[in-house]
């Protein structure tokens, strides 16, 4: 249908913006986050206007677009945090200054993620927290994070 075509064109547009990675790419993608939410609201709250297939297909496209937007916006954040991640594996990672430095770095990066509507921003920040936690757990499981005191571990 026409709506599904529109969603596909929207997705192609976003993919092009991400691929080109121009100075205005991030603001465009941040603005898209708000659009996803508005589209989702209409698709869910006015579901009687759409067939189940159209609704599902459009929601799937939106979910894909949101995921790729989050990945695109968070990639530079993880790059900036990489030096902090490396310190997670050292014996003094719980050392207060190191841990505070990671938190300050995350706070600084969060400033750069602002620019979308509040609920979209919160979702993006939630995704960042999830990924930072996953990075920490991944390093724990790889045995890179070791504490001298086994009980503290």
3D structure, described in words:
With 153 residues, the protein is an all-alpha fold. It has one domain (2-141). The chain has helices at residues 2-20, 25-45, 52-87, 96-113, 118-141. Helix 1 packs antiparallel against helix 2, helix 3 (52-87) packs antiparallel against helix 4 (96-113) and helix 3 packs across helix 5 (118-141). The radius of gyration is 19 Å and the shape is elongated. The mean pLDDT is 86. It holds the Pfam family Sec6. One of its GO terms (biological process) is exocyst localization. InterPro entries: EXOC3/Sec6. GO terms for molecular function: SNARE binding. This is Tumor necrosis factor alpha-induced protein 2.
Gyration radius, rounded: 19 Å
The largest β sheet comes out as:
none
Q: Give the proportion of residues in helices.
A: over 70%
Q: What is the count of structural domains?
A: 1
Overall geometry = elongated
Count of distinct strands: 0
The termini sit apart by 55 Å
N-to-C series of helices and strands = HHHHH
Residue fraction in strands: under 5%
* Averaged pLDDT: 86
Ranges where pLDDT stays below 50 over 5 or more residues in a row are none
Helical stretch tally: 5
Q: Structural class from helices and strands?
A: mainly alpha
């Amino acid at each position: 249908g026409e709506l599904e075509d529109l969603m596909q064109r929207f997705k192609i547009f976003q993919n092009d913006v991400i691929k080109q990675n121009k100075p205005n790419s991030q603001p465009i993608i941040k603005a898209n986050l708000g659009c996803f939410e508005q589209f989702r609201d209409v698709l869910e709250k006015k579901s009687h206007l759409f067939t189940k297939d159209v609704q599902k297909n459009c929601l799937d496209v939106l979910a894909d677009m949101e995921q790729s937007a989050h990945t695109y916006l968070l990639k530079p954040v993880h790059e900036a945090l990489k030096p902090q991640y490396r310190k997670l594996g050292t014996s003094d990672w719980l050392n207060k200054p190191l841990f505070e430095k990671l938190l300050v770095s995350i706070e600084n990066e969060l400033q750069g993620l602002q620019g979308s509507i509040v609920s979209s921003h919160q979702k993006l920040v939630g995704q960042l927290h999830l990924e930072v936690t996953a990075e920490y757990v991944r390093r724990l499981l790889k045995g890179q994070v070791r504490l001298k005191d086994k009980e503290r571990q």
